[in-house]
Fold these 2 entries.
Entry 1:
Amino acid sequence: MTTLAASAAKVRQPLGRTKAIGWFIVVVGLFTMFGMGVGTGTAPHSTLTFTPIDVSHGAPWHLANLTLPTEWTLVLLGAVIVALGAEVLVRRLAKGAMVRVGLMAIVFLVAVLVWASRQPGPSQVPFINVTAILVGSAAITMILIYGSLSGILCERAGVVNIAIEGQFLGGYLVGEMIDSATNNWLLATVGGLVIGALLGWLLAFLAIRYLSDQIIVGVVIVTMFTGLASYFNSWVLTPYPNLNNGNIASNLAIPGLMKIPIIGPTFFDETGFFYLMLVLVGLVSFALFRTRWGLRVRAVGEHPQAAAAVGISVERTRYVNVILGGAVAGVGGVAFAAIQGQFTPSITSGFGYIALAAMIFGRWRPSGAVAACTLFGVSAYLAYNLQSYQVPISTEILLMFPYLITIAVSAGLVGRVRPPAADGIPYSRE
Amino acid sequence: MPSARRLWDRYRSASPITIALLALVLGLVVGAVIIIATTPAILNAWRGTFHSWGAPGHALKVTFDNVGAAYRSIFTGSIVDPPQFWHSVTTGRGWTASLTPLSETLTYAVPLVIASIAVGITFQTGLFNIGANGQAILGGIAGVAVATLVHLPMALHLPLTLLAGIAGGVVGGAIPGLLKAYTGAHEVIVTLMFNYVASYFMLFTLLSTPLQLPNQTNAISRTMPGGTQLAPLFGTSSGLRVNYGIVVALAVTLFAIWLLDRSSIGFEFRMTGANPHAARASGINARRTLVISFLISGGLAGLAGVAWVAGTTHYIDQNFLQGSAGIGFTAITVALLGRNRPIGIVWGSLLFAALEVGGSNMQANTGIPYDLATVIQSAIVIFVATPVLVKEIFRLRALRAESVKVATAGWGS
Amino acid sequence: MRLELRGITKKFGSLTANDHIDLIVEPGQIHCLLGENGAGKSTLMNVLFGLLQADEGEILIDGEPVRLANSGDAVRRGIGMVHQHFMLVPVFSVAENVVLGFEPTRSLDRLDYARARENIRSVSREFGLEVDPDATVESLPIGLQQRVEIIKALSHDAQLLILDEPTAVLTPQEADALMAIMRSLAASGKSILFISHKLKEVRQVSDVITVIRSGRVIGSVPPTASENELAAMMVGREVSLVVQKSAATPREPVLEVRDLVVRDDRGLAVVDGVSLEVHAGEIVALAGVQGNGQTELVEAITGLRHVESGSVVLAGRDITNHSPREILDAGLGHIPEDRQRDGVVLSMSVADNMVLNTPRRAPFARHGTRNLRAVRDHAETLVESFDVRTSSVEAPLSSLSGGNQQKVIVARELSRPLEVLVASQPTRGLDVGSIEYVHREIVRVRDDGHAVLIVSSELDEVMALGDRVAVMFQGRITGIVDPSTSREDVGLLMAGSAPAGTR
């Protein structure tokens, strides 16, 4: 299933792109060192703080603020980026190059943050709250991981689930309504699971039974559900506002562990959805790569005819996985509602698609997807966070950042990842 | 009755047109189900029926009244309101009110035809341009910029405004096209992401550039001067919004017919779309073909954006082509409905434009949100894309229409 | 196991693929099912293996009627199948492939790899089929992959083994080894149903030969039947595999390939220093087992694959790494190996397919606008002169039979200004009539003074058609011989060892 450009790209020298990526990283590093670092003027400094914003559970520890000389910190961070680029160039990393780009993006955003918060400087916020950034990033990352896991479950069985965005939206809407009505996130989760599974079933039904183009059907399902959610919003939620005023889910802190500085608030003082996500990552990894079930699923995604020849039902496997994937994305939508609150029609803002890109970046593996989602999550949060620092970049330009990085990553990846061989190809017996 | 017999046979043989009509019926059924399931008045009536073990007569009546009112509003709001029309015919007055529904449908169909042809061209090449909306936004911005910020004699100004719209869209089409050709990045992801980038870029231009209406803090642009607008077809005094955009849409349709059916490059597009391997072996440069296809598609999408602004609002604000107004997304469904052929797309656009315009009328009359139109449209397309399903529902005999298998093979990596 | 098929009938729409087929395989017997491509062999095997359901008839195992709803049923009944296109997941290990569908597990549904390996080792020991259980299948050579397929069937305790065209991808020597394995399996009591269209190997190994044609059983004969007899049964009339042609009169070289190195998608040098000359007025036939670089060599010549080093010269012009467009315009005619993939667009009309690689050339187009009348006239002329059977030139190509689709390609390529014709597997999957036709046309091209390069994995075709025969093995030309050379010697070249007396 080589497409046009893939076959055209085959003629190319793979080294050329690696070189381009390497030099790009080096240029960004040099810009950080000399464009931002050396130019900061009269010895400003940047301050890092570590106290979490939400201290309701009481921060039993106190880390002193860390004050850094802005100029030298930027030069150092720039040097790190240059080193990443040099590594790509010297070792001719074909496979790891995009990982270095990801690291570069994060280091660069940290550098921008350090630069933006310098004092004396234009910023009203005189410090960087490291813990708050990590907590905020963890929330976005969690949403993306739910989406990626959904994608993995479907694509490992050979079905492209581009409807994750719609399943997010469905889970969000239903979860928010149920929580508003019952104040019970468990019920909301069940509701999100059901709606996600239903949308998964719809995709499976059209893609498996009628052999339709999976991407097109997925996109149309998203369009349909976006319309339906809008309709619902104005026809039901507006007249009954008490169906759309649920609380943000409260955190379930893990005693003891939550008291570890920085790490505690990030990983052990989270909503139940965060822990559920961690469990799901482990479960999907284990099930896909250790169990009989996983072997069969992967066989169906790689070579459905071979699976069918030993009596495995390709259709049933795909149905089950797409419905499971839909359910996971639906729960992801509920998790979204649990951290974001009120529903509005375009609230998911393409996160389902970014999750899908993260899944590709993560090579269709849960562990890889976690890494990729973390990259996207952290960079998205940093980009949003920069708004509060009066950086001389428009808010709107900053908001583009997560989407731009997704485009950049998908451009840099191709030919370096290998999807399940039957991914996206309808299977018919005759 | 041989002719009735023939009609029946034609119905049972499931031609693409039969399938499309039946899909429309099924789409309306889906819409009705949604109305029933979400409208308190109907639900209350049924609840009453169940509680009192009464005959369902009242509940049925309430259901039919509500659904009927909704669909009647869609019809009268988009095509013609018979009593009003009769009034005009007998008295010779009130023609504006009588013709407004049709005028609105045609007005809305103009950008839809253009954008859907844009999407259809990439589909024919085996590519999926989900970014038509973003490209249309860029086209709108570029058009408004040239119209409001450049001063030119009128004879040049309108053509240049439209050209600027095309150019804006070409830029938007070049990004996924070149990225796919030179890095292999999958156009679906790139165009999906690009839509968001374009929306934020629009906000940026409306808030932080000279395009913003002076002395404003809101995201709103300057208004296009009269000479750059697509004037109403029957004059400003007619009160009908239908405008010379129709001429543009017609020209685009003719261009598309030539491009796809008669031109060499269009032949190469279709070949590449139908069998990329054979295209390559026959000496077609896949990279060049896909880039050109995306450039043309982007340019037309941009033209759709500028044709919409120049023909209707004459300015853009933060709601331009956002949410339900995103014609670039509707265009995907129209292209699928019209099987990526220009004439089919024109019919599909008229139908979907009618649903949108009628949907607004429905909201005004019955309160049912016009987003229902989007749901009905998507449902129609799902049925059109899976003709076997329609065939099974209606127990048709043969099947001449094929399942949609247009673009997009996996992730192409 | 004793297998009996009674009156098996399978229809696809109006086509009857199997028409009341009766067949009996005795325990320990090697039973060959002989027939042309499209005779219905594969359909019958798919019915027997539960992948398709018969419309009529019944299957009896040891006298007892059975219903095989899916392949799992068949496997449980002791039927194992080695498919023509291996049913192996390339990225899985040997062990994972062998146990797939019948996995030993521990608690929590975990796979028990230790037991899986042990299963394989015990089957390997019992039947002498060595293979590393932890190797990834895609890293194994074709012969070993086939061995994995056999182990897979045996590990499910198959009593009847179906081998579908098993030698198509093997060298003669590998094929001999397979025959030995088949005999030893039969000796241990397994029944074997062996599907083939190659007369020689069938006579060599079978106990009984059943010939089918157009979905019907024509008859069963012992292996002592002569080849001519079998061929006549297969095709329904006496055929000559000899191509009528005069001696070649080669002139100047037209296609010159020098030290060509080409890499496949995985980066392996599958064409590794090939040099070859094709002269005007001669047919050079390239023989070899599939997968020894012939496909990539042709792709490199036609501009579809990047040339790593070396050169390709066409009529004095260096066309190395030129685009397919330039190479086609330089006078290269190409009949591609996979014609439905590379040669035609099935959804387009016959007329459009006739100008597939010349759409912009006058008179078919002018200033970017096509002249549909000229295209149609051109197609009508070609349909007439090449005897293409089609309802109209506007009919979609998919409505034509395989032979007529091939005729469209041949007509198109021969109607362009030509220096050299490169034809890959030009008769694969065609009926006998079409084969004769294509062969005649190829000889005519030669006699018109053009150079012709034929690539075929059918040894008979290569020997009958070639004026010189080049043999390719593992990316190299192992010898260029006269077509009068014995088949055994060519077989040795195909296996990479040079017999005495060749260059």
Note: Residues 240-331+418-503 of chain C form a domain with the Rossmann fold fold (CATH 3.40.50.300).
Entry 2:
Amino acid sequence: MQTYVEGNALAFEEIYRRVSRLLFAYLLRLTRDRPRAEDLLQVTFVKVHRARSSYLVGAPLMPWLLAIARRTFLDERRMKKSRYEDLSSDGKLPERPAAPEGMNDDISDALAIALDDLPENYREAIQLTKITGLSLSEAADVLDTTPTAVKLRVHRGYNLMRDKIEVLRRART
Amino acid sequence: MTDSPEPLHESAWPEPAAPSAAVSAAIHQICAGNLRPIKSRSIVDRIVRSILLSGGLFAVLLALGWRLHPPQRAVAVALAGALVWGIAQASVIIVGLGRVPGKRSHRFIRWTVVFAVPLAFFIHLTLASEVTLSIQDFVTAPRSLRHTLVCGVHALVFGLMAIATLFVLWRKTDPFSPRLSGAVAGLAGGLVGAVALDMTCPHLEAWHLWIGHGLTLVALVLAGWYAGRRWLAP
């Protein structure tokens, strides 16, 4: 990050290569809408670019970027006052979006569906700790809460996911 | 919470999807095209500047105030009081703002600072007061109300000047809890105005001190809380 601040474009390439997928996956999980997640990803990187001189040396990069992405999402949601399940132009509820790439086996598919069905705070906690790979204290910083609260959300989210996966398994058999 | 093995820990979590090539290209265009070097300040640099600037403003206000109203108590006592509150203000900056975000969690300590320091200031004001009018006498006496209003406005203006310098120095540094950082900056800046005024104001009636000096500090903490999201988050 320091090299990027000093004006090295290659450093940005490296940062982007390392974090773009994780940031995009996080935003996709929050929005459940690919075009919207891509818009938010662009806004997030623009903010990162503008705030690069304010990055405090020594701060872990991934939580810093995720916190900016989360604020971007919350700001956008507050501004639009939109809901997740907007009605489409014909007045019907939209279809569930197609499974993202790399989700072609049954277990992964069931996990993705169960994760998408969780309440937002549980979904975010699991996404940050299990998929993005943050520690509990880093995830707590991003979510502006305590590590204990994150642990509890992950635990409760797991319970709900387990029930959902069981239902899916029964439906398939 | 349970310590039993969690089968979902071992699950094959979905691979993160990649953004489209067009989006990646657009981001690269914005962030890497025509990239210029920028100077970034270290956290120590920001702390030192914050303390020097707010301390300098505090000293100027104190000197100006004492020229108008020489201290009623011994100068040494007044200076000791100023020093104690100066140390408190520097501590608020170091503990409340001087942390690398995301590295350690000082959430509880920062919240404690935001509540404990104004409380300590109110206790100080109560101990410093020499007379307590009944609320009716205070409200009906036009001179004390006017004096309180003048003090309140001065404390707000001086505090806002200090807050502005802190907000500029710490601008866009905290995406994690910008409101809390804003409240800390509001407290640190508010202390400059409130304490400088407290050291120079000759009026030692309790209601005057609580409203004119103390409430302005609380107002500035709240102002910092609201402004923090806009100014301190990237």
Note: The radius of gyration of chain A is 17 Å.
